[in-house]
């Protein structure tokens, strides 16, 4: 059930009605409802995984108490156990076959015959997201930053909250659990802000990302027959597709949360307006990067603190490879992470990694040429990274890059211009709107409320009509596979 | 050395490392109250504090502090 489908609208409508009318101001009952709704929502997508989700939730619920009550040694041991269970789940479901295959390939290349079978493991939806929530809960308890929650339903809701279980954002227990215990009454301001965010997210996803997918996918399916310019433009389009797809999804999830009275953590902060890769990672998939900063990068950085810049570089490279591999078991993801890790080296050595320069503009709000060039440079570096990310394997990535340099018919653009031109117009409108509203949570957050009612409703009407006119074949969200 | 002495010295280290004379620390200060105090500069600050007081924290200690006061207590514990 996609969040931008009619089925979801019906599902959400029922939840919304019960949540705010019969269960008005009954926090405990509302939590029960959310719990049932979350398990139904997850069960529709992957009913076989319900026992696993429930068991893991129960184990971590009790681990939280045991860590809190235990002495130093016991707490440390139990935390390690919890992290191992969490990581173990991920390794088993996402990486086991990859390891078996990689070792078999390795043995075969050195001449040893290895013919090992791989397991038939179903890929559980959302596992990368809910295991990270489980792990962060016990680490926060261990670090003494929060008290474990006694209410099982509250904890289970934190792990399985239906707007975010499939693709995040990955909320932290310290900010999310208290919201589940607080009273939630219908807040008109927050809910209408949520609706605006959903419309904006849907527009990005259905007007831009889904249409880009129909242009990008055929090119990737037939790389050898594409010209250099086609491959170049397609790479750029994929960067935009990735951003509009994933940030569109995040906006919808956050918006749904707002309607139910929750503040879900931010996931994107206009990442394509950043001037170097370090800035980019602070603004792209923020709930994942901040998770890894706290639980992977910081401990490594603390460990390596006496090694100076070398220690910092090492910590960043390991962290970025983990970022890459989190997406799945494929050498392309490892290479993607390594590539981004290496891009930090010049920033660290030149010192610009430590400086946070505010972006200045002229009187009209337009950035200076120097900054525009830096943004473009960062965008192109990110685009190259996403070519590695999108490739099925390293060989395909290599074919793609070779295709770039196919100069014999470089300028023969094979993309359909009739499809491309209106889409390009929407992309430009989106970026202009986002640029001028970049200080806000999302582009429509105050842009329309500042304007008069006629303009405001005309704009909503325009977007909604466009959602119908432009929406092509519904595409799954890219991040559902991770 | 008492709490206040340590706090004063730590404050000087912060001013020096973050290059900002206007930083005033209290026991309740957190990274949210001080500009430029983030996960990166935090490590620089820790290294400078360890050098100044000739002590060594464990990773767990460094990752558990919730505010300046907890860090100061940790330093005092090590010194005594």
TrEMBL record, chain A:
UniProt organism field: Algibacter aquimarinus
Transmembrane segments annotated in the record for this chain: 5-21, 41-63, 75-96, 116-139, 307-327, 333-354, 375-391, 420-436, 457-474
Main location class: membrane
InterPro entries referenced in this protein's UniProt entry, alphabetically: Ac/AlaTfrase_AlgI/DltB (IPR024194), AlgI (IPR028362), MB_O-acyltransferase (IPR051085), MBOAT_fam (IPR004299)
UniProt keyword Transport, yes or no: no
Keywords, sorted A to Z: Acyltransferase, Cell membrane, Membrane, Transferase, Transmembrane, Transmembrane helix
Compartments (UniProt record): Cell membrane
Membrane topology: Multi-pass membrane protein
Family: Belongs to the membrane-bound acyltransferase family.
Name of this protein: MBOAT family protein
PANTHER family: ACYLTRANSFERASE, PROTEIN-CYSTEINE N-PALMITOYLTRANSFERASE RASP
Superkingdom: Bacteria
Automatic annotation (TrEMBL), chain B:
Native source organism of the sequence: Algibacter aquimarinus
Domain Carrier, chain residue ranges per copy: 4-79
Protein name listed in UniProt: Acyl carrier protein
Transmembrane segments: none
Pfam family membership, one: PP-binding
């Amino acid at each position: 059930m996609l969040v931008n489908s009619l089925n979801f609208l019906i599902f959400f409508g029922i939840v919304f009605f019960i949540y705010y009318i019969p269960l008005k101001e009954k926090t405990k009952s509302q939590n029960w409802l959310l719990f049932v709704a979350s398990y139904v929502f997850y069960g529709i997508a992957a009913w076989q995984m319900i026992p696993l989700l429930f068991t893991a939730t129960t184990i971590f619920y009790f681990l939280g108490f045991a860590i809190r009550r235990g002495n130093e040694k016991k707490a440390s041991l139990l935390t390690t156990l919890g992290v191992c269970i969490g990581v173990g789940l991920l390794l088993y479901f996402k990486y086991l076959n990859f390891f078996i295959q990689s070792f078999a390939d390795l043995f075969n290349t050195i001449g040893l015959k290895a013919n090992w079978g791989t397991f038939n493991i179903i890929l559980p939806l959302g596992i990368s997201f809910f295991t990270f929530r489980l792990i962060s809960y016990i680490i926060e308890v261990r670090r003494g930053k929060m008290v474990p929650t006694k209410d099982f339903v509250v904890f289970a809701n934190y792990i399985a909250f239906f707007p975010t279980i499939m693709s995040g954002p990955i909320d932290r227990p310290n900010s999310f659990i208290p919201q589940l215990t607080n009273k939630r009454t219908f807040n008109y301001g927050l809910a209408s802000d949520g609706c605006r965010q959903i419309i904006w997210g849907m527009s990005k996803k259905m007007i831009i990302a889904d249409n880009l997918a129909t242009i990008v996918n055929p090119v990737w399916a037939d790389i050898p027959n594409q010209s250099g310019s086609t491959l170049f433009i397609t790479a750029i389009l994929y960067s935009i597709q990735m951003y509009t797809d994933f940030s569109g999804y995040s906006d919808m999830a956050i918006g749904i949360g707002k309607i139910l009275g929750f503040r879900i953590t931010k996931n994107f902060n206009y990442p394509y307006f950043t001037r170097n890769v370090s800035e980019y990672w602070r603004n792209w998939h923020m709930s994942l990067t901040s998770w890894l900063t706290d639980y992977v990068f910081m401990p490594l950085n603390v460990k390596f603190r006496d090694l100076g810049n070398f220690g910092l570089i090492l910590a960043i490279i390991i962290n970025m490879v983990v970022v890459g591999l989190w997406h799945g078991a494929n050498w392309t993801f490892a290479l993607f992470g390594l590539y981004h890790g290496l891009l930090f080296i010049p920033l660290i050595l030149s010192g610009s990694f430590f400086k946070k320069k505010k972006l200045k503009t002229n009187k009209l709000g337009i950035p200076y040429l120097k900054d525009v060039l830096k943004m473009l440079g960062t965008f192109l570096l990110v685009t190259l990274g996403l070519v590695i990310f999108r490739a099925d394997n390293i060989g395909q990535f290599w074919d793609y890059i070779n295709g770039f340099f196919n100069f014999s018919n470089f300028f023969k653009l094979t993309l359909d211009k009739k499809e491309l031109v209106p889409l390009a117009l929407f992309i430009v409108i989106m970026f202009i709107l986002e640029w001028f509203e970049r200080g806000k949570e999302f582009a429509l957050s105050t842009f329309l409320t500042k304007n008069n009612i006629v303009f405001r409703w005309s704009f909503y009407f325009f977007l909604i009509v466009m959602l119908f006119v432009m929406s092509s074949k519904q595409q799954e969200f890219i991040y559902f596979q991770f | 050395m008492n709490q206040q002495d340590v706090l004063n010295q730590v404050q000087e280290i912060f001013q020096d490392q973050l290059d900002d004379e206007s930083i005033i620390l209290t026991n309740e200060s957190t990274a949210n109250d001080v500009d430029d105090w983030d996960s990166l500069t935090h490590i620089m600050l820790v290294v400078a504090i360890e050098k100044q007081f000739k002590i060594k924290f464990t990773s767990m200690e460094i990752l558990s502090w919730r505010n300046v006061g907890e860090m100061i207590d940790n330093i005092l514990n090590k010194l005594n």
